[in-house]
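Take a careful look at the sequence and tokenised backbone pasted below. I need to know what the token row says about the fold.
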Amino acid sequence: MTRPSEAGQAGAPAGRPNCDAFDNPPALCYHHQGPDCRLGLQCPDTKPGRSTARLWSSAKKRLARVCWCLVAEAVGRRSTKLCCSRAHSAFISEGGVFVFLREGEVPLDTLSWAEALREEIVGWRRQIHMRPELGFHEERTAALVAEVLQGLGLEVRRGVGKTGVVGRLGSGRPCVAIRADMDALPLQEVNAVPYASQVPGVMHACGHDGNTAMALGAAAILARIGERPQGEVRFLFQPCEEGADAEGKSGAQRMLEDGALDGVEAVMALHVASTLPAGNVAVSGGYMLAAADAWEATLTGQGCHGAYPHLGLDPFSLLAQVIPAIHSIVARRIDPLHPAVVSIGAIHGGDGGNIIPGEVRLKGTIRSFDDETRRCLHRELERALALARTLGGDYTLALREGVPATYNHPAIARVVAEAAAGLLGAQAVTAQEAGMGAEDFAWMLQRAPGLAFQIGAQRSGEQRLHHSPDFDFDDSVLPSGAAVLAEAACRLLRMSDLEGLTMLRATGQ
């Protein structure tokens, strides 16, 4: 294949096909309404607008190289004259076919855009990874996010939920939201990579740097894709998913208090998963993550000298009866078809080997999916601890309800799965396995129906577990994740019944 300039044609600036670029066969037009082509190529007779920011320079060059070759190939095959007066546009399909379409018929080629933005998306992830910040201290990350969103032309609001950022693309209804968490963990990174954390004792050990980069990539794609469906796409960059503030509230709760989800009909969150095969998208409807409640209990006896136990009431003897009762709750008091966990994570009592203490303290966690099981677990824990009174002692119990269960709306799950299959192939979409972990995104799902799903990012032949000092993932999958988010958002905006989606938990509707 030869470039037009090599075939004797003149007048076409490098990388900019135009109506005068080809003499035989008749000229092909790349024009449409607006200063920039939907592929990121600037028409030669227009001036760069504010939308052609520095952010897009490398992406435009990459697309320009691809488009130039395809135009030359197409000229050798086609004889139909397509000129400026017809206002035709073009796009690149996954198979590399050059397609001509009438004005208003440009498809949402999100994957091509994502690939063109690969360097930017991966670069954002690595920049954030190098400067990690703990929950509610994401100032530098928020500044980067806001700068990128503003460069894309989004309406940006900072300081939402303390250090969160909200970007709004489009307006009106329906409104679909994409949420990404930004906080890091208090761990010392041990990875010897160029983008390793430069902050001692803090690292992105859960992949929130990747989550943020994918959401930014989705914003970049949707801001430049051409025609978007009617409505708004709202981007929620959330602080402090991993912890809570002094009042016990996480970043999702604080953002909700500041109105981040007001008017939203559906919300999505995509998380990288270092344990899933790279490039696989895991999505399912129904319960995905558990409600998480914390509990603390004290068993009270009567302290005494270790040589004279008969003069007191040994709280360890009370504990010896209480622990089996706690461990039997799930096995004998909960329906086997309803997942549940009651765990003891800490026991403290006494300071000296010859002193029987007056009390023993316990801490643990309760996990469940449905509200009925959750209430039952609370009641049964109380009954198990009450054995201390039967034996002559006493107890206290403090229960603190945490995040609710994460419930994926089946209808939204189907839309996202279809979007992922359409972009990446059906073989790349797998069922998402439910787990007893917890995620504060569930607070947002209490306000609007939505979906939490994952993209596999396992490094070849390695196990880099989340929340470990050697955690890392294959960030080459990030553009695919961004494309799936963008495509899913567009499909959700087109749903005729989006505003009427119910939030029923077990109907399967």
Q: What stands out?
A: Residues 1-108, 504-509 have pLDDT under 50 and may be disordered. The chain is about 30% helix and 20% strand. Residues 57-75 form the longest helix (19 residues).
